[in-house]
Amino acid sequence: MTVIDTHCHLADAKFRDDVENVIARAFDAGVAQIISVGAIGPIENDRVTVEIAERHENIFAAVGVHPHDAKDCTPGRIAQLRALATSKKVVAIGESGLDFHYMHSPPEAQEASLRAHLALSAELDLPIVIHCRDAERRLVEIVRDAGIPPRGGLIHCFTGDADAAREFLALGFCISFSGIITFKNSAPIREAASIVPDDRVMVETDAPYLAPEPYRGKRNEPAYVTRTLEVLANLRHTDTATLGAHIIANAARIFRLP
Ligand SMILES: [Zn+2]
Ligand SMILES: [Zn+2]
User: CATH for 3-255?
Assistant: First the structure.
């Protein structure tokens, strides 16, 4: 089995003491590549994210401002992201988007931050990583209005239903599924996971959050993406080798990975 973890947060404080062991376990488990996302908290997390990627040939970085922190997305912060993105290891902008579930930043601030990230993605010719929670309709409206960046992007940790998935696909996005599809109460998300075409599907951990069953509630780590891949392959009536190969090819295309 070979797969990529297209979304995790290796700079998170929960990995501070053992990040190198976490990375080694992932590669031992068959995870060929990892995309580590900064975005949560201060710009320092984006810097550490890029540093970790620069230390490891098969780890890549995304930099951005999480919708939770959208109120901090000033022009100065965008300039800092632009500077960080000069690293060859930065392969995407994000995660940005809308989170109307937690609403840690006002919706106007989230929308302004999303538009700034869409513009930065287009300017830097990088794909965008989108976080969307209970905000599918508004997200589609904003992307329709602003335009999807030329390099496209992905909806990470998809939590909508099949109709929302179809709307995102029509806009040109890839869709990434997390450990949530291993939870019992995820029927609409599982249905969506079965209808995304082979050339648009992705998988991720979102570690250290959202550990898949049977690790639910524990600290998540990139090695566990293999568990989510198994469940995703089952839902799609295929095997992990075939699906893993599709996902590796999709990530290589979208993120321009070697
Ligand atoms: Zn997210
Ligand atoms: Zn995330």
Answer: 3.20.20.140
